[in-house]
Amino acid sequence: MDVSSKPKVLINRKLPEAIISYLNEHCECTVWDGEGLLPRPQLLEMIKDYEGLFVNNEQINAELLERAPKLRVVSSSSVGYNHFHIEDMKARGVIGTHTPYVLDDTVADLVFSLILSSARRVAELDAQVKQGNWKRGARKEDEWFGMDVHHATIGIIGMGRIGEAIAKRAVHGFDMNLVYNNRSRKPEAEERYGAQFRSLEDVLKESDFVVLMTPLTPETEHYIRKEHFEMMKPTAFFINASRGQTVDEQAMIEALQNGTIRGAGLDVFDQEPVSPDNPLLKLSNVVTLPHIGSATTKTRYDMAMLAAQNLVGALTGDKAYVVQELKELVK
Ligand code: DGY
Questions:
Q1: Is 300 tagged catalytic?
Q2: Assuming Cys at both sites, which of 257, 272, 299, 314 could form a disulfide with 106, CB separation 3.0 to 4.6 Å?
Q3: CATH number of the domain where residue 220 is located
Q4: Which residue, by CA, sits nearest to atom 3 of ligand 1?
Q5: pLDDT of 112-158, one tens digit each?
Q6: Ligand 1 mutation pick, 75, 77, 78, 267, max ligand atoms within 8 A of CB
Q7: Each residue of 297-311: pLDDT tens digit?
Q8: How far apart are CA 279 and CA 296, in angstroms?
Q9: Parallel, antiparallel, or unpaired: how do β-strands 52-55 and 8-11 relate?
């Protein structure tokens, strides 16, 4: 391709050399080479010249789009795309792409680490050992006991690809009983993992581990609220690796403080990074992580490469994972 006919694209962070050289074959790239992510004010200033934008977790809204007359494609290096303001993008005819499939197993592994850490109190007891509190006869025998994961009931809310990867681990690895709720039934998951479809309420009532994996959309904002925590068993654990806003965080804090539920494992928060003053950080029955569901070296590389391929594909009319709500923009 002749250099002058290559589309101009803006990359909001440093990427591995191989990904940049792939992009350079097809595009004229400007890569932010400062620390971290290209700051929003600079992005808003620069975006007017570009047809393509590579991001993750950057609000793609009217504020940005009105400064971007040439923009045709935004490629997000993430599976979730709640940062795409769909109506604004539709109005401007800007395609959005994301990175499904490549992170499913990695996120499912992380969900299991939250299940195991919260039930067996791994982080809490690690701190006890390191603080020198492991002393013979110093406490009641059951003080550090946890809950079994194997043969317990897991309830998955949102049985998408990641939900199914969690189901596989739960049933084949830990002999768990599996119930789920999803917008539509999943016959393959029922067949493969013996997953039993339930109403949301019944998933909450029956499960020892409630795992929330539903994507954040206007319909799922604060999907789990006070009344839902009240339906859960007092011995149950709540695991969230979707988005913080799918839960009423204040209601969850109260449920954890007053013993409505036993504990939680959280990779996501209403505000990220989480404020140091958030009461969740003071609770010993809560395991917290800094939104690292997909954060392994290989998976983040694969996501960035797929996002680069999506950017090129969508700009050139070739294959790309365009998000469902914007597929109508693809000719
Ligand atoms: C995703 O890809 O949506 C993960 O949450 C990482 O952002």
A1: no
A2: 299
A3: 3.40.50.720
A4: 80
A5: 999 999 999 999 999 999 999 999 988 888 999 999 999 999 999 99
A6: 78
A7: 999 999 999 999 999
A8: 28
A9: parallel
